[in-house]
Design a protein that fits this description.
Length: 81
């Protein structure tokens, strides 16, 4: 019998599907954090998922962060630390 880790398989498949959109997803999440549209536990969960996507896809968010004010950059970086 072959064992299959469904969660891992789904995570990898989702990462592959979302990889071309990782920068856009990061920007939307960062904008939501900046405007406080998401906060608390919801923000924590969304940021955790986005961090995983960024890590899996190797997306460089440095250039994207430059689009925000210094204050916003610090706040966003704090969430993604």
């Amino acid at each position: 019998m072959v064992k299959c880790d469904i969660k891992s398989t789904n995570t990898n498949r989702h990462a592959r599907l979302l990889a071309p959109h990782a920068s856009s997803i990061f920007m939307h999440v960062a904008e939501a954090l900046e405007s406080e549209t998401i906060r608390g536990e919801t923000a924590s969960r969304v940021v955790a998922a986005t961090k995983g996507l960024i890590a899996q896809t190797g997306t460089d968010v440095g250039p994207l962060m430059q689009q925000f004010s210094v204050e916003s950059q610090q706040m966003i970086a704090g969430w993604f630390a």
